[in-house]
Amino acid sequence: MTKSKVVKFKVENSDKVLEIPVKEVDTLYGVSYILLRSNKDLETKVKEGFTKLYAINPINDCKVPIYIDSKIEEAKGGVPLHNEEDYEYAVKHKIEIKQVIEEVTGKPHDNEFKKNSIVAIVYDEDNDKYLTINWHEKGGRLFIGGTIKEGESPLDCALREVKEETGYSKLKLLKEVPKINHHYYAFNKDKYFNIECTGFLFKLVNSKKDKQNLDEDEVFSVEWVDKDTVLKEIKDELHHKTYEYAMQDRVIVKDGILVNSELVNGLKRKEATKVILEWLKEHN
Q1: CB within 8 A of 73, min separation 6: which ones?
Q2: In this predicted model, what pLDDT tens digit does every residue of 111-129 receive, in sequence order?
Q3: Residues 85 and 110 in one domain
Q4: Prediction pTM value
Q5: CA 98 → CA 60, 80, 87, 146, 229, distances in Å?
């Protein structure tokens, strides 16, 4: 991967152009702020923090805020979800965090069906246990998962699936984790799938249960289990990775395929880097 490619960002409503090192050029679509050492190239009196000025990301014309931090060694374009230092700065200053790389789990197969899905992790704080469904010999132990319907948001899908599969509906959203691109075989449908999956971590608010609403092929046990059982028995790579994401204070997705990056969506990072470098030669 090409490191620290200098990219020209125009300052909004100005003739100023900032030459900013972008650490990994394939993540250019994910730049959500500019960080400078000083204000010498700007028409502002602000010496530290947010300048109240914006730069234009050349590849997507998005406005990104300009900040000043005199302690840094060089200017940079911040890509929070894919760089630890950038993440810490973005959280501290409440800057938007964009996902442009999806980690890939599972193994691709021919004749895969594509869909968007969710994995919902429900935590019972009072009893220190997690809600799971046990498919036994037809897939083992998993968290709650399901397919997003047309016109349905990932969050609405997660709440619906938890209610339908387990009967629990009184939940508090604690966290939405980055999307994962996953390949898998569905035992109950006898099909291979490639999905984009959004994960959620919920807290159980009320243990009252409604009646389940299951399809004929949904034959499983609903079981609350402790952390040790989760780590030992949830072997599915997607569900295991979603749990890892949910339990971390931060998630730094470093490898996978590009998303939310118009020119390079679906490409691996090395391929995406070549495409964006060619684009910069022509347009920047």
Answers
A1: 37
A2: 999 999 999 999 999 999 9
A3: no
A4: 0.89
A5: 13, 7, 10, 24, 33
